[in-house]
Amino acid sequence: MAKAPSAKTPGLETSIQTLGAAKIPSPLRYGRYVGQDETLELRLTEEEADVSAGPGVPFKFEKAGPRGAMYFDSSKVKCAIVTCGGLCPGINDVIRAIVMDAHHNYNVASVIGIRYGLQGFIPKYGHDIIELTPKNVSNFHVFGGTELGSSRGPQAPDEIVDALERMNVNVLFMIGGDGTMKAAANIVREIQARKSRISVIGIPKTIDNDINFVGRSFGFDTAVEKATEAIACAHVEAVGAFNGIGVVKLMGRESGFIAAQATLALKEVNFVLVPESPFALDGPGGLLDQLEHRLSTRHHAVIVVAEGAGQHLCEASGRTDASGNPVLCDISSLLIARIKEHFKARAMEATIKFIDPSYIIRSVPANANDRVYCGFLGQNAVHAAMSGRTGMVVSRLQSRFVHVPLELVTMKRKKLNTASDYWRAVLESTGQEEMPQQG
Amino acid sequence: MAKAPSAKTPGLETSIQTLGAAKIPSPLRYGRYVGQDETLELRLTEEEADVSAGPGVPFKFEKAGPRGAMYFDSSKVKCAIVTCGGLCPGINDVIRAIVMDAHHNYNVASVIGIRYGLQGFIPKYGHDIIELTPKNVSNFHVFGGTELGSSRGPQAPDEIVDALERMNVNVLFMIGGDGTMKAAANIVREIQARKSRISVIGIPKTIDNDINFVGRSFGFDTAVEKATEAIACAHVEAVGAFNGIGVVKLMGRESGFIAAQATLALKEVNFVLVPESPFALDGPGGLLDQLEHRLSTRHHAVIVVAEGAGQHLCEASGRTDASGNPVLCDISSLLIARIKEHFKARAMEATIKFIDPSYIIRSVPANANDRVYCGFLGQNAVHAAMSGRTGMVVSRLQSRFVHVPLELVTMKRKKLNTASDYWRAVLESTGQEEMPQQG
Amino acid sequence: MAKAPSAKTPGLETSIQTLGAAKIPSPLRYGRYVGQDETLELRLTEEEADVSAGPGVPFKFEKAGPRGAMYFDSSKVKCAIVTCGGLCPGINDVIRAIVMDAHHNYNVASVIGIRYGLQGFIPKYGHDIIELTPKNVSNFHVFGGTELGSSRGPQAPDEIVDALERMNVNVLFMIGGDGTMKAAANIVREIQARKSRISVIGIPKTIDNDINFVGRSFGFDTAVEKATEAIACAHVEAVGAFNGIGVVKLMGRESGFIAAQATLALKEVNFVLVPESPFALDGPGGLLDQLEHRLSTRHHAVIVVAEGAGQHLCEASGRTDASGNPVLCDISSLLIARIKEHFKARAMEATIKFIDPSYIIRSVPANANDRVYCGFLGQNAVHAAMSGRTGMVVSRLQSRFVHVPLELVTMKRKKLNTASDYWRAVLESTGQEEMPQQG
Amino acid sequence: MAKAPSAKTPGLETSIQTLGAAKIPSPLRYGRYVGQDETLELRLTEEEADVSAGPGVPFKFEKAGPRGAMYFDSSKVKCAIVTCGGLCPGINDVIRAIVMDAHHNYNVASVIGIRYGLQGFIPKYGHDIIELTPKNVSNFHVFGGTELGSSRGPQAPDEIVDALERMNVNVLFMIGGDGTMKAAANIVREIQARKSRISVIGIPKTIDNDINFVGRSFGFDTAVEKATEAIACAHVEAVGAFNGIGVVKLMGRESGFIAAQATLALKEVNFVLVPESPFALDGPGGLLDQLEHRLSTRHHAVIVVAEGAGQHLCEASGRTDASGNPVLCDISSLLIARIKEHFKARAMEATIKFIDPSYIIRSVPANANDRVYCGFLGQNAVHAAMSGRTGMVVSRLQSRFVHVPLELVTMKRKKLNTASDYWRAVLESTGQEEMPQQG
């Protein structure tokens, strides 16, 4: 390895690992090259990164883009793509962009698709490999989900590197969430230990938009669009009954970005509940009290609840899922039960309609905005790989594409800042009062 | 009343009640009048009506449409509209069409909207009344649900007729399902007992498409369109995991029309389960066996289950809901539990994704096809009322609009004929084998 | 040929040609067979067929569906599919259904796709042939248009039959409009002259919905849905300017079905102009006069004009296009010019926005309703072919699928009956007055 | 006026005019106030601003947001909103946000809507005024266009200020394009000359995305989404014919942002033509040559052309429209004529389908992303006005909302930088070669 990772505690400069010196001229047809070590200084907002040094500290990131010199002789390169974790709009667009760019710009020897996430590297699962060509990926963007299949959970890094070596893969593109980026870091360590020459480039994927140092994760915009459709339905249901209450559960295990953004996009939400803002159900000013007031005056209400909200209200199961995430308690069921109980005790008529649109939100094809974004992510991932970068992800921050070390993006999850102008606008849009946090 | 209801046991002639002789010239601007007693002979298919006399017996129905002579002096008429039961695409289109036709064609004195279903007639609920004018209903079609609000369950017919008399209502349009049509019949009886002169016209609403003598209920087409979107998502989810299983629960308490039609519309469904076709879960050829075979060969599957399917597999609760319908057992939870158990016992990996899109399906605005249909239903309801008809519903059968006595539509619910070409095509589309009915 | 075509002048019985006796048992897995010569009596409405014998005369049609006995040994059959003329939603669904049914139900040897319409049969064009399999057509329904490509205009029947014989094709499915159905009849005659044993089955395609004896042509419903979106935009544009006029040109060379249905579906149209109803531009009660009145009182207006409307107002060019259809004069340009002139002369402000959505309407994928319909058309076409039928089309009339001889469907085009209840409802929806026909 | 406008030649600091000292405590319920003169330093990219000082020079902008102290006693304030120029998705969302924020946050006395653009101020047009309340704007976001109506062209500033004074308006919100922002500057000058105390706040609107110092104009994202639908149809049409050519004309008088972004979003475009990149039609490497090559190898092509592209190829008319913009020559007609001619001369079959979706693109309701954006624009416009700012617009740059002096945004139009990474990616997506600029 040419450089050791020097990602200091957040702040200042970030540095990207490379496999070695880039000496081979780039074959790009539409060339405007970025300088080999060109950087960009950005002062990040609280919505872009949660950093210990506090907001506003300037960061220097390496600029993404094609370099004039390559580390690999691209025409001899074999690439592999793997998709891990839950679905998210745009995965197929990223795959397509990687394949198109690798073939059309760099004329690579081959791009293969690993089936069903990290399982696809492990012989015992017996999954096949797909050769990905410009022809067979040309319609990928029409379909939601991942054409490669996915799976959750880790696999042994040494078995994965064994597989990469066995297949003569030079570049591995990993599309996945927090867990996948951590797995990527482990794979990079294993590759380094073997003094192997394989580049690992991450493209962070999270429908929750909670990856640190990623401005807005791909698919988020599409997810919000679909979420507003579900909220519109909840509103129609709420209005359609006397004291009708529409409850919509949205994704957001540890952060309420989708819930917040969808609330801003559709002005029909009266209460929005997110993990970052613990709330009281009972007592004056608690959710039930505010809801009762709303129904008494307006006779309908819409509640949007992120799946990770209100975990302080229910007992933790202590279990974790296949990806290692804690199993959340079912806040929406709790809410519904408590709301029913509350109005029954007051002999107030109230009708609750519950909508859980999660699989409908995450499995649709990307919208135009996300497609453009995914295209750039895929292209820049290929550029980074060909120039010999490794152990990094491609990210967009303040409309620019940059390289971010894996260490930074996996350090912690990004959360909504409930003291921000953004969250203030969300509350304003709902009209809900700040709720006491103990009840 | 001029005529007694003479709806004989299904077959032959149907006859419609009137309030009295129609002697006042009609003010219609775009006139082509239907003869006062003009009828139409139709041989109904099994998908249109479930009749004891068997399919193919010709029925004579009174034709819908404007008559040259009216019973009411329309310019002095006050109409009321009430919407009952669950939401369905197109309710607002029917309301809009009634208001527009009553005002523009018949120049009626007033159309009022009753709030929150039959509750709106009962003083103790304290709901207000809305004056409906061409201006304030002009955008109703843009919104799903019902702008009047709805509620479930019956109210005392005498209190309802008291309210109608108190408000000087001459014509009551009732938009609702099976229960509402039975309520309409009771209201008609009360009106007759009082020798009152109020016309009651029903517009049958059911997202399940299970009303007898209604070819395809309004909103059904829109519901199927939305259902296919959910199925498409289930397919994407199923394909995205190894041995992925997408389960979609669709409306259909006693009949599987939506499940069947959506299956035909989106060719990704592998198993469709409807109330009319009891199926075995266990044993050779049972659902679990077929599903295991499907996963072993194709590694993904989509199951569509109507909410009323497989009730023989779980114990009845004996309870009924506010509308008097039996509370169904939760077949989808049972299915999911049994599928998980089955594959766990076989140590086969299997991932289940469950989608319940019901509120998303029923609360969207109507599509173009349903809008045209709802427009004709509303107009013909007004025509029927002005000519003095009562105790009947407006229905479309074989592309014609006809009057059907309340007695006929409430006699029994329409069901899928599982011996029909239609159901055969559904099975063919899935590739599923006939399942043994005991397991 | 076993039977001579006996399609009498409209009325009574229709009879279908066959290649010979059906003696081979059918292999159908989901069997409920239709009787070999089973017929169905239908009294057609004016919207379904324009017949010289007048509406209401009962017709006997052969029922569509699988027969217990086949003429062909299906496992040895080679089928070909060709798509001709302009695009229409659902073509790919019909292709898909034919391929799926031929393979899955009848286990045919091969289905080939002819490229670019009838050109694909003619060696000089050099187009290739596509083998169509359940696998490669499985996603066809996701895409609009025709995956086979199309072309306009006739090719020599003997060259086509040469090609069929050279490729050993036993069954030819022709998806196309009026001209294509006439070409099909010529091909049948050529096959008969050669005493060849090739079945030719038509699936009538016309976005104008003007094929006689076809209740509603496939794709029509989708086209109307898209047309309403364009009309909604025209309405927004009209409202957005003082005396704003939105003009939308819709398909409809000789019949105004799309214009009429879209007008009923979206209640924002103030004037609808169709070929069947010649109208005066000038003079009292003419379009310009009514439009002026509308603007003076409401300050915005939406006009929907079928492309074939008002041809009496402009000089015929005398030319014909590649399909042999007369080149229409450009009524929308004429309208716009005359409207501008009219209001300029009166010094009335008026802003015209013109929308021509035709290619956007016809190239989208089919909606759920059309998909179900196309599925049945394709399946029934295969059933008809396997039983040895030829020289016929598959049609849906009053919710039933039937066989109709080519002679009947090509005799004349279906038109809107401007004296019908349907057209009355269209006028009522717009509020436009009957216009004098000379101006 | 408290401060003179000090907007220096681009670069460094921008300064915002105020009506006077802000001394009244703000009534905000969801308060986190921005410092009275808080600024933000941003280094703008070429896509955000075209500045003579060159890209990368840091700019200091005043931060948008609520201030703790107000200039106006908001409860006595009367606001007016006017919408000018062509339609664009999101106008109604901005109106709604202004009304909601003014009423709910600042409890203003009144917000009125001026009808039909600047005409609405001029008595001779006789347009009425609309009182805008939270209730009557609550559904505005459902509709495209502008509920206030619009018009093009200037009106005399003194007459406008007369009207403002006559109606006791304290704050005027102007939603419009380049011309409207220039009109706003004139109105501010007239107000200053009269020493009047009226605040004028602009919200820049342009579907072309060509306003300087505005990162991405509202509605642009929605417009691109709709544009891709038209391109998808053009692709289907192109593929549906042998040597099919789909031509789509998109908005973009002087800048090709929509064309470029839509090309990136839908990977089916083969040639994209924008005003910023003059191209040769003829000669080697010219458009016709490249198109011929494409058809010879792939047999279909999609061309996207911005309306202002290729103006060097046709003679300027010298005329201007009502807004003072030069009337463009019709490049799409020229293109189509020359393409037909070219292939006719070569006896190559070629079928051209032309789609002009402009009114369909600009009149749809905003998507979720644009709705959120419009909400912030409206809120920040109200905040700016209440604190006494004037002569400025609200803009989003690099995810932050800032105040920009009218002088800066009207100085020149923003254009695509054809040397940028962005444009390179566009070309790469099409595969088109750089064209010679003289042909």
From TrEMBL, chains A, B, C, D:
<dbReference type="GO" id="GO:0003872">
    <property type="term" value="F:6-phosphofructokinase activity"/>
</dbReference>
<dbReference type="InterPro" id="IPR012004">
    <property type="entry name" value="PyroP-dep_PFK_TP0108"/>
</dbReference>
<dbReference type="GO" id="GO:0006002">
    <property type="term" value="P:fructose 6-phosphate metabolic process"/>
</dbReference>
<dbReference type="GO" id="GO:0047334">
    <property type="term" value="F:diphosphate-fructose-6-phosphate 1-phosphotransferase activity"/>
</dbReference>
<feature type="active site" description="Proton acceptor">
    <location>
        <position position="208"/>
    </location>
</feature>
<feature type="binding site">
    <location>
        <begin position="359"/>
        <end position="362"/>
    </location>
    <ligand>
        <name>substrate</name>
    </ligand>
</feature>
<keyword id="KW-0067">ATP-binding</keyword>
<keyword id="KW-0963">Cytoplasm</keyword>
<dbReference type="GO" id="GO:0046872">
    <property type="term" value="F:metal ion binding"/>
</dbReference>
<keyword id="KW-0324">Glycolysis</keyword>
<feature type="binding site">
    <location>
        <begin position="206"/>
        <end position="208"/>
    </location>
    <ligand>
        <name>substrate</name>
    </ligand>
</feature>
<comment type="function">
    <text>Catalyzes the phosphorylation of D-fructose 6-phosphate to fructose 1,6-bisphosphate by ATP, the first committing step of glycolysis.</text>
</comment>
<dbReference type="Pfam" id="PF00365">
    <property type="entry name" value="PFK"/>
</dbReference>
<comment type="similarity">
    <text>Belongs to the phosphofructokinase type A (PFKA) family. PPi-dependent PFK group II subfamily. Atypical ATP-dependent clade 'X' sub-subfamily.</text>
</comment>
<feature type="site" description="Important for substrate specificity; cannot use PPi as phosphoryl donor">
    <location>
        <position position="179"/>
    </location>
</feature>
<dbReference type="InterPro" id="IPR000023">
    <property type="entry name" value="Phosphofructokinase_dom"/>
</dbReference>
<keyword id="KW-0808">Transferase</keyword>
<feature type="binding site">
    <location>
        <position position="86"/>
    </location>
    <ligand>
        <name>ATP</name>
    </ligand>
</feature>
<feature type="binding site">
    <location>
        <begin position="177"/>
        <end position="180"/>
    </location>
    <ligand>
        <name>ATP</name>
    </ligand>
</feature>
<comment type="function">
    <text>Catalyzes the phosphorylation of D-fructose 6-phosphate, the first committing step of glycolysis. Uses inorganic phosphate (PPi) as phosphoryl donor instead of ATP like common ATP-dependent phosphofructokinases (ATP-PFKs), which renders the reaction reversible, and can thus function both in glycolysis and gluconeogenesis. Consistently, PPi-PFK can replace the enzymes of both the forward (ATP-PFK) and reverse (fructose-bisphosphatase (FBPase)) reactions.</text>
</comment>
<protein>
    <recommendedName>
        <fullName>ATP-dependent 6-phosphofructokinase</fullName>
        <ecNumber>2.7.1.11</ecNumber>
    </recommendedName>
</protein>
<dbReference type="InterPro" id="IPR035966">
    <property type="entry name" value="PKF_sf"/>
</dbReference>
<dbReference type="GO" id="GO:0005524">
    <property type="term" value="F:ATP binding"/>
</dbReference>
<comment type="pathway">
    <text>Carbohydrate degradation; glycolysis; D-glyceraldehyde 3-phosphate and glycerone phosphate from D-glucose: step 3/4.</text>
</comment>
<feature type="binding site">
    <location>
        <position position="178"/>
    </location>
    <ligand>
        <name>Mg(2+)</name>
    </ligand>
</feature>
<dbReference type="InterPro" id="IPR022953">
    <property type="entry name" value="ATP_PFK"/>
</dbReference>
<dbReference type="GO" id="GO:0005737">
    <property type="term" value="C:cytoplasm"/>
</dbReference>
<keyword id="KW-0418">Kinase</keyword>
<feature type="domain" description="Phosphofructokinase">
    <location>
        <begin position="78"/>
        <end position="384"/>
    </location>
</feature>
<keyword id="KW-0479">Metal-binding</keyword>
<feature type="binding site">
    <location>
        <position position="307"/>
    </location>
    <ligand>
        <name>substrate</name>
    </ligand>
</feature>
<keyword id="KW-0547">Nucleotide-binding</keyword>
<feature type="binding site">
    <location>
        <begin position="251"/>
        <end position="253"/>
    </location>
    <ligand>
        <name>substrate</name>
    </ligand>
</feature>
<keyword id="KW-0460">Magnesium</keyword>
<comment type="subunit">
    <text>Homodimer.</text>
</comment>
<feature type="binding site">
    <location>
        <begin position="152"/>
        <end position="153"/>
    </location>
    <ligand>
        <name>ATP</name>
    </ligand>
</feature>
<dbReference type="InterPro" id="IPR050929">
    <property type="entry name" value="PFKA"/>
</dbReference>
